[in-house]
């Protein structure tokens, strides 16, 4: 959790520094990426989503024995279908252009492999991001959602840890924004943007990263820090 707080402080500074800066964001959209993130539906294409239900069916077959009381629930069995149905709507909700409210500069691939942590004093030190290939305008919570889902351990996220980390990021973002701008971005709106960001990232996970999922394939990736925790 200490490492996640360190990276979230850095994200809050990045997002706060470009918050609703229309001129900067317009330049970024023209010279870098029109929309941040390699997993956006516009970047990946709708055809990729056709794999979601097959991948999820195979996932359930591979892991049902681990938690049958969970994986046999109808809403869980239908999760890929439900996600595919709402994915285009979710994609539109998380798009934020240069002149939109809450728009900022988003890293677009903020995983553990793309950030250096201080060797000492992680609790108050500064993280250093790298690999800005997918940077561009968007909602800052897209970075937070991808980062926590990809690089946050279950131990850090369970028992209210996810919500505490979200509130921690929001608190540091509001400090960076100042009272006037912070008042326009209450925690309820931030939480909604985060939830939408998780759903948008989940489309990528179900469509691509759950393909061929099994205990053995997950085990083969267990020590690879470039692979998200949710699929290793």
Helix content: 55-70%
The average pLDDT value, as a whole number, equals 96
- In one word, what is the shape? globular
Q: How do the strands of the widest beta sheet line up side by side?
A: 1-4
**How much strand content do the residues show?**
5-15%
- Major β-sheet, in short? 2 strands, antiparallel
Defining traits:
232 residues, mainly alpha, two-stranded antiparallel ribbon, two-stranded antiparallel sheet
How would you briefly describe this protein structure?
By secondary structure, this protein is mainly alpha-helical. It has 13 helices and four strands.
Report what the structure shows.
This protein has 232 residues and is mainly alpha-helical. 57% of the residues lie in helices and 5% in strands. The protein has helices at 2-17, 22-31, 41-44, 52-63, 68-71, 74-77, 79-94, 140-151, 154-157, 161-177, 179-183, 187-209, 215-220, and strands spanning 103-106, 115-116, 128-129, 136-139. The strands form 2 sheets. The chain has a two-stranded antiparallel sheet with strand order 1-4. A two-stranded antiparallel ribbon has the order 2-3. Helix 8 (140-151) packs across helix 12. The longest helix is centred in the C-terminal third of the chain and has 23 residues, at 187-209. The radius of gyration is 18 Å and the shape is globular.
Describe the secondary-structure layout.
Elements (H helix, E strand, L loop, with lengths): L1 H16 L4 H10 L9 H4 L7 H12 L4 H4 L2 H4 L1 H16 L8 E4 L8 E2 L11 E2 L6 E4 H12 L2 H4 L3 H17 L1 H5 L3 H23 L5 H6 L12
Antiparallel strand pairs: 1-4, 2-3
């Amino acid at each position: 959790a200490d490492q996640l707080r360190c990276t979230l402080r850095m994200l809050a500074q990045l997002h706060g520094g470009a918050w609703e800066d229309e001129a900067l964001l317009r330049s970024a959209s023209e010279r870098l990426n029109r929309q941040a993130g390699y997993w956006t539906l516009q970047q990946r294409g709708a055809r990729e989503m056709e794999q979601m239900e097959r991948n999820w069916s195979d996932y359930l077959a591979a892991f049902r024995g681990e938690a049958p009381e969970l994986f046999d629930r109808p809403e869980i069995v239908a999760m890929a279908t439900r996600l595919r149905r709402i994915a285009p709507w979710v994609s539109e909700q998380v798009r934020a252009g240069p002149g939109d409210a809450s728009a900022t500069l988003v890293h677009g691939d903020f995983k553990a492999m793309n950030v250096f942590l201080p060797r000492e004093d992680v609790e108050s030190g500064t993280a250093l991001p790298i690999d800005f290939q997918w940077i561009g305008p968007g909602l800052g919570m897209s970075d937070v959602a991808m980062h926590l889902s990809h690089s946050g351990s279950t131990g850090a996220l369970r028992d209210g840890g996810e919500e505490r980390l979200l509130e921690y990021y929001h608190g540091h973002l509001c400090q960076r924004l100042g009272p006037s701008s912070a008042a326009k971005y209450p925690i309820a709106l931030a939480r909604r943007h985060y939830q939408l960001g998780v759903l948008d990232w989940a489309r990528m996970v179900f469509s691509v990263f759950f393909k061929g999922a099994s205990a053995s394939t997950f085990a083969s990736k267990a020590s690879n820090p470039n692979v998200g925790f949710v699929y290793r």
